[in-house]
Design goal:
Layout: E1 6-11, E2 16-23, E3 27-35, H1 47-68, E4 78-84, H2 88-104, E5 109-113, H3 114-120, E6 133-138, E7 143-150, E8 153-159, H4 165-175, H5 182-190, H6 215-228, H7 232-261, E9 266-269, H8 276-285, E10 290-291, H9 302-311
Parallel strand pairs: 1-4, 4-5, 6-9, 9-10
Antiparallel strand pairs: 1-2, 2-3, 6-7, 7-8
The structure holds 5'-O-[(R)-(carboxyoxy)(hydroxy)phosphoryl]adenosine (KG4) and zinc ion.
Zinc ion (ZN) binds near residues 114, 118, 139, 270 and 300.
C-alpha cells in the first residue's frame, strides 16, 4: 500500500466521458472531459446513445490523458471508476474498459460511488475544507444534504422527494426552448431578467425538515410559461424567478442543516454548484465559510473519481470482474 499514490480515474455514469490522473501530494496530473452533445435535440440524456458514445471515446481518452502528462501506464498504481449510481449501460462501459485496462497493466481496480466523488471534489482546491462539514450535493440526478464527519463517514440529512435541482433546471430550459444542458442556459437567460416580476413558491420551506421537492416548482414554471409566453423580457423574468426560487430554497435548507448539526462549514458540489447566483446567495446567507470545487470540477469529471479512489485505496481489488450498481445509496458505503 506504501507506493499507492497515482490513480487513474474514469467516469461514465451519464453523458460525460471523463478521464484523469490524480497523484497524492501533487494533485491532478492530467485530465480530459468529453460532454456528449448528441442528446441536445432530445432535450435529455438518451441512455443508449450515451453508452455508444462512451464506447467510442473512452479508450482513446485514456491514451490521450496519459500521453499529455508523459505518463507511462506502469506509473499508475490503480484504476478507479464510477460503479454507480448512474445509467446502467453507461456504467457498464466504464466498468468493462476500466477492468480490462487495469488487467492489462496488472493493477487493481477501485469501484467509486459517483456522489462520493462529487462530495470530495472540493478537497482538490488549494485551500480545502477541514472535516467535519455539511455537504449539499446538487447534480442532475441528486439533491442531497449530508453530514460529513470524515471521509467515508456520511449521514443523510435530507434529499429530494422527486426531481433533482439540476433536473429542474434542465426541464425549465426545455420549457423555455433553451439548449442543453439546461442549467447554464437558464442561468444565462436569467441574467437579463427581473427575478421578482412573478411569484414563485419556495417548496417545503414552510415546514420543518431537510427534504426537497422541485416538481411543483417545475409545474408552476410550466403554467407560467403557457400563460405569459411572450417576449424576451418575460422569458428572462421567468428564468430569473425560477433560479431565485431554487437558490433560496437550497439556502434555507442549508442554513437549517448547519443549525441542526451545529456545524459551521458547508461544502457544495455537483453540477449546480457552478451556478453563480447559488454561490452568492449561500456566501451571503450563511454564517460560516462555504467551500466549492474548482469550477471545472463542479460537473462530472475524472479527477474526483480518481481522488475518491485514492481515499478508498484499501478497497482496491484484483481487476477483471465487470460490476456496476446503478442504484446505490450513499450511506450504504462502508466506512473508510
Ligand atoms: O454533476 P453533474 O455534471 O451530473 C450529474 O451527476 O447529474 O450535474 C449536471 C447538472 C445538470 O442538470 C446541469 O443542468 C446542472 O448540473 N448545471 C447547472 C449549472 N451548470 C450545470 N445548473 C445551474 N446552473 C449552472 N451554472
Ligand atoms: Zn455528477
Amino acid at each position: 500500500m506504501q507506493s499507492f499514490s497515482t490513480v487513474l480515474g474514469i467516469e461514465t455514469s451519464c453523458d460525460e466521458t471523463a478521464v484523469a490522473v490524480y497523484r497524492h501530494g501533487e494533485g491532478i496530473l492530467s485530465d480530459a472531459v468529453h460532454t456528449q452533445m448528441e442528446h441536445a435535440r432530445y432535450g435529455g440524456v438518451v441512455p443508449e446513445l450515451a453508452s455508444r458514445d462512451h464506447v467510442r471515446k473512452l479508450a482513446p481518452m485514456i491514451r490521450q490523458v496519459l500521453d499529455r502528462a508523459d505518463l507511462h501506464p506502469g506509473s499508475i498504481d490503480a484504476v478507479a471508476y464510477t460503479a454507480g449510481p448512474g445509467l446502467a449501460g453507461a456504467l457498464l462501459v466504464g466498468s468493462a474498459v476500466a477492468e480490462g485496462y487495469a488487467r492489462g497493466i496488472d493493477r487493481p481496480t477501485i469501484r467509486v460511488h459517483h456522489m462520493e466523488g462529487h462530495l470530495l471534489s472540493p478537497l482538490l482546491e488549494p485551500d480545502p475544507p477541514e472535516f467535519p462539514f455539511v455537504a449539499l450535493l446538487v447534480s442532475g440526478g441528486h439533491t442531497l444534504l449530508i453530514e460529513v464527519r470524515a471521509p467515508g463517514a456520511y449521514r443523510l440529512l435530507g434529499e429530494t422527494l422527486d426531481d433533482a435541482a439540476g433536473e429542474a433546471f434542465d426541464k425549465t430550459a426545455r420549457l423555455l426552448r433553451l439548449g442543453y444542458p439546461g442549467g447554464p442556459e437558464v442561468a444565462r437567460l436569467a441574467e437579463a431578467g427581473d427575478p421578482d416580476r412573478f411569484a414563485f413558491p419556495r417548496p417545503m420551506t414552510d415546514r420543518p425538515g431537510l427534504d426537497f421537492s422541485f416538481s411543483g416548482l417545475k409545474t408552476h414554471t410550466r403554467l407560467l410559461i403557457e400563460r405569459e409566453a411572450g417576449d424576451d423580457a418575460t422569458r428572462a423574468a421567468i428564468a430569473a424567478g425560477f433560479e431565485k426560487a431554487v437558490v433560496e430554497t437550497l439556502a434555507i435548507k442549508c442554513r437549517r442543516a448547519l443549525k441542526q448539526t451545529r456545524l459551521e462549514r458547508l461544502v457544495v458540489a455537483g453540477g449546480v454548484s457552478a451556478n453563480r447566483r447559488l454561490r452568492t446567495a449561500l456566501d451571503a446567507a450563511l454564517p460560516g465559510r462555504v467551500y466549492y470545487p474548482p469550477l471545472a470540477l463542479c460537473t462530472d469529471n475524472g479527477a474526483m473519481i480518481a481522488l475518491a479512489g485514492w481515499f478508498r485505496r484499501n478497497e482496491a481489488g484484483r481487476a477483471g470482474d465487470i460490476a456496476v450498481r446503478p442504484r446505490w445509496p450513499l450511506d450504504d458505503l462502508p466506512p473508510l
